[in-house]
Amino acid sequence: MLTALLWLMATLLDHGWGEPHRWHPLVGFGGLANRVESLAYGPPQANPAARRLRGIGAVLVLLAPCMLAAWLLSLVPLLGLAVALGALYLAIGVRSLTEHAEAVADALRADDLPLARERVGRIVSRDTADLDEDQISRATVESVLENGCDAIFGALFWFALAWTPGVVVYRLANTLDAMWGYRTPRYLDFGWAAARLDDVLNWIPARLTALSYLLVGAKPALAWRCWREQAPFWKSPNAGPVMAAGAGALGLALGGPARYHGEWIVRPVLGEGLAPRPEDIGRAIILVRRSLGLWLVVGVIAGVAFA
């Protein structure tokens, strides 16, 4: 029951305050990760195996002390509860995700493509300089659906499973994946450990997120079929189920070619229906919020049952 109450309290804090605009721990962690990368990356002539070992070491150096500190603080009466609530509040980002996506939609409704490209570039890793309205809408909907898992449901899951150490390690590992988990010449080997750890930590949350989209979406049968038939062909084992189920639940066609770091990547189509329009960004946000409501209700019911 305590876990469900902390879920609710953290969600309310995020709804009321959003992310801290100054001194956000994840920003500080990102700066620390950049410093560790500069020290651990090694010389240009390092072979792939050595680079991969250096990446493993960098992940361990960054995550092990944070996990230990979170565990020790969780053992302190009262303070442990406050730290747990603070960690969960800082780990989830419902309001931030909503505000970033709505800002893109506002720019599209104002027919300001340059502003829309700038704003969508803050939430996606693909190249955005030449995107048209449909491509911007698709990128934003994809980001909302995928980040529903990364920024909300994964954090809730690991908090329920492993309390403060769980949510801290999950969110920091997710941050490292966002920084290093690219198949570029620089990060293909060095970022291997960060990417694989994120895959492992997100395997169950991703499928629970996809199930949530299926249950609260307008087209559950289509969501299930897209998840079952299309997700296995997506390059990411976790983003595939989340985005396929979300696209099917919304009745939209996502995926398709996209350019990353100057290179066009052929991606399979996910979902079924029309290409997303600016108004579909709001529909994606509603789907994520309804899924969050489902999680909170199930969490409270489970808490009462166990109590």
From TrEMBL:
<dbReference type="Pfam" id="PF03186">
    <property type="entry name" value="CobD_Cbib"/>
</dbReference>
<dbReference type="InterPro" id="IPR004485">
    <property type="entry name" value="Cobalamin_biosynth_CobD/CbiB"/>
</dbReference>
<keyword id="KW-1133">Transmembrane helix</keyword>
<comment type="similarity">
    <text>Belongs to the CobD/CbiB family.</text>
</comment>
<keyword id="KW-0169">Cobalamin biosynthesis</keyword>
<comment type="pathway">
    <text>Cofactor biosynthesis; adenosylcobalamin biosynthesis.</text>
</comment>
<dbReference type="GO" id="GO:0048472">
    <property type="term" value="F:threonine-phosphate decarboxylase activity"/>
</dbReference>
<keyword id="KW-1003">Cell membrane</keyword>
<dbReference type="GO" id="GO:0009236">
    <property type="term" value="P:cobalamin biosynthetic process"/>
</dbReference>
<dbReference type="GO" id="GO:0015420">
    <property type="term" value="F:ABC-type vitamin B12 transporter activity"/>
</dbReference>
<feature type="transmembrane region" description="Helical">
    <location>
        <begin position="151"/>
        <end position="173"/>
    </location>
</feature>
<dbReference type="GO" id="GO:0005886">
    <property type="term" value="C:plasma membrane"/>
</dbReference>
<feature type="transmembrane region" description="Helical">
    <location>
        <begin position="287"/>
        <end position="306"/>
    </location>
</feature>
<protein>
    <recommendedName>
        <fullName>Cobalamin biosynthesis protein CobD</fullName>
    </recommendedName>
</protein>
<comment type="function">
    <text>Converts cobyric acid to cobinamide by the addition of aminopropanol on the F carboxylic group.</text>
</comment>
<keyword id="KW-0812">Transmembrane</keyword>
<keyword id="KW-0472">Membrane</keyword>
<feature type="transmembrane region" description="Helical">
    <location>
        <begin position="53"/>
        <end position="73"/>
    </location>
</feature>
